[in-house]
Design a protein that fits this description.
By secondary structure, this protein is α/β, with parallel strands linked by helices. The chain has a domain at 2-164 and 193-222 and 263-279: NAD(P)-binding Rossmann-like Domain (Rossmann fold). Helix content is 40%, strand content 18%. The chain is built from eleven helices and 14 strands. The protein has helices at residues 11-20, 51-59, 73-78, 80-100, 133-148, 170-178, 197-210, 226-237, 267-273, 280-292, 295-300; strands at 2-6, 25-30, 40-43, 63-66, 104-110, 153-157, 159-160, 184-187, 191-192, 195-196, 214-218, 224-225, 244-247, 261-262. The strands form four sheets. A seven-stranded parallel β-sheet has the order 3-2-1-4-5-6-11, with helices on both faces. A three-stranded mixed β-sheet has the order 12-9-14.
Length: 305
């Protein structure tokens, strides 16, 4: 299967493209950050007029995994128009083109579409209530995709792993600080169900192979606080867990609002795939194993000089 991956230099896009190159033909879309990758690269600015049609015509993919987004919460608050263009308008245009040409597409969304006010676990039937510009534009992106392409799949995700810059994921935040003996704040009042990016990549491809469509929560099978996540990273790497400082998100000084409860059910995904969904515990082990195999250095070797 030939898969077009947008946002190929991003945390998910790059790990997915590298991980799936041996089993599928991957064509990554990147503006200017990558070079020398083992998968084909197409240079493109996704906000240029006509870029959707050009990419699809040039690549002629069997499927598209759309990972590109303006994902920095603070940046979305200061640039809401840019967030709307990339997170809402472009996904709708891409999904419509895929529908016209009978190309399967998975659009990547976020668990942040929920406000976190629910005390239990969120399912795909729960009504979202986004709290900030990023979450609002991502929710509108979901709606844009499914309104023009009912056969599309929308995956609400939360993930961690090694990135091109070494600074894109929460796991890297904890590693970078703890490895230097620095303290790192961990939110005790923010619950989430994060998934190792390698597990997420494999799950997304299985969704394509299975022909799934509609809305899915594609997250880890275990809920924990961000503080506990930091402690587990510390223990896995042999760092001092006491360096992870328990703090409330309300005391963090962050501009963009964060949801306190992002426990998401993966029952629908597990049932429709016929598979158990990986937990964060096994994901942290894989994250550590990649470190011992110099995977972070390998990823950085693909950075355009």
């Amino acid at each position: 299967m030939k898969i077009l991956v947008t946002g190929a230099s991003g945390l998910l896009g790059l790990n997915l493209s590298l991980g799936m190159t041996g089993t599928h033909t991957i064509v990554g879309v990147d503006r200017s950050k990558l070079a020398g990758t083992p998968f084909e690269l197409v240079k493109a600015d996704l906000l240029e007029p006509g870029v959707c049609s050009r990419l699809i015509s040039e690549v002629q993919p069997d499927a598209v995994i759309h990972t590109a987004a303006l994902a920095n919460l603070e940046a979305c608050e200061t640039n809401p128009e840019g967030a709307r263009l990339l997170n809402t308008e472009f996904p709708g245009q891409l999904a419509e083109l895929c529908a016209e040409r009978n190309i399967r597409i998975i659009h990547i969304s976020t668990d942040a579409v929920f406000d976190g006010a629910k005390e239990g676990v969120y399912t795909e039937d729960d009504v979202p209530n986004p709290r900030g510009v990023y979450a609002q534009t991502k929710l509108e992106g979901e709606q844009a995709v499914l309104s023009v392409n009912p056969d599309a799949a929308v995956a609400r995700v939360n993930f961690f792993g090694w990135s091109l810059s070494g600074k894109r994921s929460l796991s890297e935040f904890f590693y970078n600080n703890l490895s230097r003996g620095n303290q790192a704040n961990g939110f005790t009042d923010v619950w989430f169900c994060t998934m190792f990016v390698g597990d997420l990549a494999g799950t997304l491809v299985r969704m394509l192979e299975k022909g799934l469509s509609g809305l899915y929560h594609v997250v880890g099978s275990e809920a924990l606080t961000k503080y506990e996540f930091g402690v587990r990273i510390a223990r896995q790497f042999g760092f001092d867990p006491g360096l992870v400082i328990p703090i409330s998100v309300e005391e963090s000084g962050l501009k963009a609002s964060r949801s306190h409860n992002l426990r998401l059910s993966v029952h629908k995904l597990s049932t429709d795939l016929g598979l158990s969904i990986p937990s964060v515990s096994t994901g942290i082990e894989k994250f550590y194993t990649q470190f011992t195999q110099d995977y972070p250095q390998k990823i950085r070797s693909y950075q355009q000089v």
